[in-house]
Amino acid sequence: MFHFECARRLKRSARGADNAAMIPSLRLRRGTTGVAALAAAAAILQFVPPSQASTVPGAPACPMTPANSFWHADVSALPVHAQSSTWVSSVGTGSTLKADFGSGIWDGGPIGIPYTTVAGTQARVPVSFDYADESDPGPYPVPANAPIEGGPSSSGDRHVLVVDRDACRLWELYSAYPQNGGTSWTAGSGATWDLGSNAMRPLGWTSGDAAGLPILPGLVRYEEVAAGEIDHAIRFTAPRTAGAYVWPASHKAQTGGASDPPMGAFFRLKASFDISGYSAQNQVILRALKKHGMVLADNGSSWFMSGAPNAGWNDDDLQRLRTVPGSAFEAVDVSSIKVSSTSYAVNTGGTTTTTAPPSTTTSTTVPPSSTTTTVPPTTTTVPPTTTTTVVTPPSGELVANPGFESSLANWGTGNNATTLTRTCAVAHSGACAAEIGRRSSTGDAVMDDSPNSVSSTTAGRVYAASAWIKAPAGRSVTLRVREYRGSKVTQSRTTTVTGTGAWQQVAVNSAPAAGGTGISIDVLVSLPSSLRAQVDDVSLRRL
């Protein structure tokens, strides 16, 4: 899909490189430079708690991605890739790191890739695509005044990123242009993701990005830098890429040859690189580059990191990152943490991954005699071949139809692409189970309780959900519990594992923020249309 997409993107990156030297002089007018500004930034970095960085700003009930996503993987100890020296030379050993984001306005638009959040009631509008065969069809919940990368008059990539804060769903467009006052849009390509799922794009498909990845999770955001920690890999660009892609990417956009890195290649800042002389703001970024690395997601200028614009950025300080040479980076072999070529989930070998905030944390075990009334603020990732064991909670089943022995009553599908049937050919217990699949294409098959299993929660109590799920090996499996006040999602908790082809029990706890809310249980399995998954013995109990 190079012919249109890459030509547009290379044009923008070349213009950005030519003008990069001019940006600091324009930003000086904002009055955010000098020792005083650096001292103020350091004060902010010292006192803001780091837990604020793990949810979507503007959508506090939504995780940016699942805790066991590749975005959060610690790649600092993974082996150096065999092609490291070749790929680093391709991107440029003499080229330097660049923060392609900041504060203020440049060339008529914000500096970086902006995004917005909307309510679930946001009107959805039709979008026509140049690459409709690789785009998720509309309508999309894009407001007429949605921020556009580069500004309304931009001729660059014109990304539009929107998060539905009630459904915790991300929508992204590339080369987006509003039509008729925003009542419809045109775009080069578009994609949508469930922020609680590790399901990938179909292999070979693009997204709003050349690599087929979501853009928002890879942006450097001011809120997380101010909190003192970036807990994810960072999106970056390179001028030449091979005619191939590697996990976690799903799409190629060839601009070079076999000696150039493929889309999805991981790089990290060498552990030996001394960051002590950099500001507090920049050290947060550099530490993330050592721990989580950066993933090649688009064609563009060498070592350009993507981020979201924010008035809090100290632009002159960000420019000092240009003293980090390309030779300070190395390519990383991430093959050992991949659990499936169709899932963003990683195998952490049973270790605990980056902590998610309380509103989105998950728990995979329920203590047999626990009196705890809150879910611990850590996320335990289940290895791809491990069956999660949950001790049976106290009596008082809240699910109306947990075993599907006689019908599918009280259960429905979470999207129009899901099929839901009852099968008595396989079951975890009893004679029958529910079976879910996809009508077409690869994506999440979603099964949910209807009506909600709990109509009014009790404040101060923990609700323990579990389900036995038999999913094809390598497929992403998620159990999700969502708390509602009316039609609005106020909290969402998930546990994601990788299917083994055998029955697995998956569990998650939820402690309602307040009483009087509803609780819904969802099972999500990433499937192609040719495969099915079975669900049985679903449970929800109040501890």
What's the overall average pLDDT, rounded? 82
Percent of residues in helices comes to: 10-25%
List the total number of helices: 7
Spatial extent as radius of gyration: 23 Å
Strand content: 25-35%
Give a quick account of the main beta sheet: strands, pairing sense, barrel closure. 6 strands, mixed
Structural class: alpha+beta
Low-pLDDT runs of 5+ residues are 1-53, 350-395
Q: Any idea what the shape is? A: globular
Measured between the Cα atoms of the first and last residue, the distance is 53 Å
How many strand elements? 27
Report strand order across the widest sheet.
Answer: 3-16-13-15-14-17
Entry keywords:
five-stranded antiparallel β-sheet, 543 residues, disordered N terminus, single chain
What is the topology?
Layout: H1 2-19, H2 23-27, H3 34-47, E1 55-56, E2 59-63, H4 84-91, E3 98-100, E4 105-106, E5 109-110, E6 116-118, E7 127-129, E8 160-164, E9 169-174, E10 177-179, E11 184-187, E12 189-194, H5 222-227, E13 234-238, E14 266-269, H6 280-291, E15 294-299, E16 304-306, H7 315-319, E17 329-332, E18 411-413, E19 418-423, E20 433-438, E21 443-449, E22 463-470, E23 476-485, E24 488-498, E25 503-510, E26 518-527, E27 532-542
Parallel strand pairs: 3-16, 6-8, 7-11, 13-15
Antiparallel strand pairs: 1-2, 4-5, 8-9, 9-12, 10-11, 13-16, 14-15, 14-17, 18-21, 19-20, 20-27, 21-26, 22-25, 22-27, 23-24, 23-26
